[in-house]
C-alpha cells in the first residue's frame, strides 16, 4: 500500500503491478477496473498517515530474487524499526547498492510505513528475505560486520565485492551471525563521553556506505 | 521534560537542574520536595510516549551561550522535524562537535520528542538559537553549506575550524543564508536513477561529520 502521488507514480513506472487505486480524482493513466473513485473523507479512513494524501495505491507484492553478487550487498540482522529500514533502503538507492538481504526477523519492507519512508527507492533496491546464516554460508566473498569493538573503518581497505552486515537496534548482530563474519569494523567515537549512545543503525549505515563508495 | 531512567540520570548528572520528578517509586537520590510519587496510570496520562516509562522528570531550561569557536560548529537553517534534530544532536555528541547553532525557525531542542531522541546527548552538546544570518556575518571563519550542486565533499580539504550549515528538510538552505556561505559541498550520488530523492538531512549530517573527522 502506497500513499501520495509521487510514490504511486514511481511504483507505476517500475516492475510493481497495481491492483487498485483509490483517489478522489483521475490522476493516473490506468485502466478503469483498477480505479476506485473515493471521497477524501473515505481516503482518510483507510490511510495509515496522519495527513492523508489524495491517492492511495494497492500493489501486488513482487517476487524478488538475488542474482550473483557482483558488488557491495547490504545485509540486515533483525532491524525492527520501519523508519530505519526505509532510511536504509533510501541509502542503498543513493549509494547504488542493488541488493539488500534481510533476516527473516527484520521488519517487512512492504509495511506501509517502510514504503512511505523509502520515498520510491523500494522500486530500485532488490529487497530479499533470507535465513541470514544460510545466506552468509552460501557466499564465498568477504563479509564485514559492524561492532563496537571492530577495526576503525577509516583505516580499512574495503572490498566492494562484499557483504556489509548491520545488526538489530538494541542487540546488534547476533552471535550465530557474528561467527560467520570475516571482518569486524566500527566507526570511531570522537566525543569523549562514555555515556554517549552508539550511533543509530540508519546513521551508521549512511557512514559505512559513504566509506565504501568514497574511493 | 524527559522520560525514562537513563535519560533522567544523564540530565541529573549534568548542568541541567531538576524541577520535579514524577515516578512510581523512589529511584533517584533527590530532595523530597522535588519528588512527586505518581502511580503508573497517572504517569501514562502525562507521558508524551506511546509506551510510558516509570519516571518523568521536569527540568529547568538551561541558559546556553556560544563561546569562541575553536573547532567545527554545526548550524541548522530551519530543520523542522524533532527526530531529525534529535539525531543531529546525537551525531554532534558522537563526533565531538560542541556547538550547534540553530536558526530561530528550527524546531525547539527542548521539545520532548527531541529530548527523547537525543538519548542524553543534549547534556553534552551546546544548542544555541540565533539569527543565522547575523551569526554567520559575525564570524570570520570558513562556512560550508550543503547543496545538491556543491563540490564533491570527498575531494575537498575540509577545515576543522569552520561552520557546517545544513538546511530545511523540504527547501534546503534559504537564499539569504546561501549568500553568506563560503564553500558549497555535496555528497555525490552513486545510484543512477534521476528519481532518487536527496538524502535526508540527518543522514547527510552523519556523512558530512564523518568526512570532517575521518582524517
Write the layout of secondary structure elements.
The structure is a homodimer of 215-residue chains.
Chain A: E1 2-3, H1 5-12, E2 17-23, E3 35-37, H2 40-46, E4 55-60, E5 73-77, H3 82-94, E6 99-103, H4 112-118, E7 126-130, H5 132-138, E8 142-152, E9 162-167, H6 175-178, E10 183-186, H7 201-213
Parallel strand pairs in A: 2-3, 5-6, 5-9, 6-7, 8-9, 8-10
Antiparallel strand pairs in A: 1-4, 2-4
Strand order of the largest sheet of chain A: 7-6-5-9-8-10
Count of distinct structural domains of chain A: 2
**General shape of chain A:** elongated
Highest-level CATH class of the largest domain in chain A: Alpha Beta
Based on the structure, what is the oligomeric state of the protein chains? homodimer
The CATH topology label of the largest domain in chain A is Alpha/beta knot
Order of helices and strands of chain A: EHEEHEEHEHEHEEHEH
- Which structural class do you get from the secondary structure elements of chain A? alpha/beta
The interface involving the most residues is between: A-B, 38 and 38 residues
Supply Rg of chain A: 19 Å
Number of DSSP-assigned strands of chain A: 10
CATH architecture of the largest domain in chain A: 3-Layer(aba) Sandwich
Mean pLDDT of chain A: 93
Query: How far from one another are the termini of chain A?
Result: 38 Å
CATH homologous superfamily heading of the largest domain in chain A: SPOUT methyltransferase, trefoil knot domain
- The low-pLDDT segments of chain A are none
The biggest beta sheet of chain A reads: 6 strands, parallel
Count of discrete alpha- or pi-helical segments spanning 4 or more residues of chain A: 7
Percent of residues in beta strands of chain A: 25-35%
Bin the helical content of chain A: 25-40%
Amino acid at each position: 500500500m502506497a500513499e501520495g502521488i509521487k510514490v504511486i507514480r514511481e511504483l507505476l513506472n517500475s516492475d510493481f503491478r497495481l491492483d487498485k487505486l483509490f483517489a478522489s480524482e483521475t490522476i493516473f493513466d490506468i485502466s478503469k477496473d483498477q480505479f476506485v473513485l473515493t471521497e477524501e473523507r473515505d481516503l482518510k479512513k483507510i490511510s495509515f498517515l496522519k495527513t492523508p494524501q489524495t491517492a492511495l495505491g494497492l500493489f501486488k507484492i513482487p517476487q524478488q530474487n538475488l542474482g550473483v553478487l557482483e558488488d557491495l550487498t547490504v545485509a540486515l540482522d533483525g532491524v525492527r524499526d520501519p523508519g530505519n529500514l526505509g532510511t536504509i533502503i533510501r541509502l542503498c538507492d543513493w549509494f547504488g547498492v542493488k541488493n539488500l538481504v534481510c533476516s527473516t526477523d527484520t521488519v517487512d519492507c512492504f509495511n506501509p510505513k517502510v514504503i512511505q519512508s523509502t520515498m520510491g527507492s523500494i522500486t530500485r533496491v532488490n529487497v530479499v528475505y533470507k535465513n541470514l546464516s544460510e545466506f552468509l554460508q552460501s557466499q564465498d566473498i568477504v563479509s564485514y560486520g559492524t561492532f563496537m569493538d571492530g577495526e576503525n573503518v577509516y583505516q580499512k581497505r574495503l572490498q566492494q565485492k562484499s557483504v556489509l552486515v548491520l545488526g538489530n537496534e538494541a542487540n546488534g548482530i547476533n552471535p550465530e551471525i557474528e561467527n560467520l563474519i570475516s571482518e569486524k569494523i566500527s566507526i570511531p567515537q570522537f566525543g569523549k563521553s562514555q555515556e554517549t549512545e552508539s550511533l543509530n543503525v540508519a546513521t551508521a549505515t549512511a557512514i559505512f556506505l559513504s566509506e565504501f563508495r568514497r574511493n
